Amino acid sequence: MAVTSAGILLYRLAEEGPEVLIAHMGGPFWASKDAGAWSIPKGEYDPESESALDAAHREFEEELGVPAPRDETPYAELGTFAYSSGKRVTVFVADGGGFEASDLVFGTFEVEWPPRSGRMQSFPEVDRAEWVALSRAQELLVKGQRPAVDALATHLAAAGG
C-alpha cells in the first residue's frame, strides 16, 4: 500500500508575483543541500482514521510549531501528487498573506547519527521556512512536490491572481 501524506501550501501575492511558504528539511543529510532539499509542510496520515485536510493542519503545526491560518481562510484541494517511490501527497492551498514565517518552533525526530555509531541524536524536522517566488520554489522543492507549484500557478490564474 502506498504511503499517503497531506500538506498545506500557503501562498501570498507579493509585488513581484505569487510566493509560497516552503520549509528546508532538517537533519544531517539535508544540512549542506539547498536545491531539492525543501518541502511543503506535510506528513503521513492514515486515511482510514483522519481526513487529509485535518492531517495537513496537524502536520503543518507539528513541523513549524504554529498552526496554519484557519479563521476565514478557505482551503482548496490542489491535487494529489505521486512521487516516483509511489508515495502520494495531497496538497491543500490557502491564501497565507497575513501569515508571518517567524517565531517558528520546529518539530524534531531522532536518528542514529553518525550511521552505525549506535548513538541516537535529535534533529529538527525542518530547520527554516521561507516565502519564495514560484520559480524559486520549483528549484528548491523535492522533485515529487514541484507539480504542486504548477497546479498552484494554474489555480491562481483561473482565480484571476
From TrEMBL:
Keywords: Hydrolase. This is Predicted NTP pyrophosphohydrolase, NUDIX family. InterPro entries: NUDIX_hydrolase-like_dom_sf, NUDIX_hydrolase_dom, Nudix_hydrolase_domain. CDD domains: NUDIX_Hydrolase (cd04662). Transmembrane segments: none annotated. It comes from Microbacterium pygmaeum. One of its GO terms (molecular function) is bis(5'-nucleosyl)-tetraphosphatase (asymmetrical) activity. The lineage of its organism: Bacteria, Bacillati, Actinomycetota, Actinomycetes, Micrococcales. GO terms for biological process: AMP biosynthetic process; ATP biosynthetic process. Residues 1-154 form the Nudix hydrolase domain. Signal peptide: none annotated.
